TrEMBL record:
<feature type="domain" description="PilZ">
    <location>
        <begin position="2"/>
        <end position="97"/>
    </location>
</feature>
<dbReference type="GO" id="GO:0035438">
    <property type="term" value="F:cyclic-di-GMP binding"/>
</dbReference>
<protein>
    <submittedName>
        <fullName>PilZ domain-containing protein</fullName>
    </submittedName>
</protein>
<dbReference type="Pfam" id="PF07238">
    <property type="entry name" value="PilZ"/>
</dbReference>
<dbReference type="InterPro" id="IPR009875">
    <property type="entry name" value="PilZ_domain"/>
</dbReference>
Amino acid sequence: MRKFVRHPSDFPADVRVLNEHQDSHSVQMKNISKGGMSCEVSVPIFAGSQVEICVPSVSKECFGCGEVAWCRPGRGHFQLGVRFGDAETAYRARMVEQICQIEAYRRECESREGRFLAPDQAAEEWIELYAEDFDNQFTADDNGLRF
């Protein structure tokens, strides 16, 4: 059983391997939780590697560090699981989670209701509707979010 709820995400991110080469890789986040994140990357990054995680669409600064927990081959890419390293990273991940949820809400309004919301409008609505109960309102299932 999972310790943390996974929140679906579809944001581009960068993962920088903290080694002598400081290799940086563009990744596509798939889900994120307080404990870690999964993403797709074009090259394997070995389990145990220490990495720094950035989400350029959210902030120019990296939001934290983690350790690669697993790396599995996929079709034309590798699936990567990153475990967050400390409470500060987990806190920042929570902020990224909220941004992901707001974007999912914006897309949902567009597809279900035909409403096209600007990001700031979506944020205002989402905060009013869901922020207070953030941890309990959203759960992940195989198809994404359940509102």
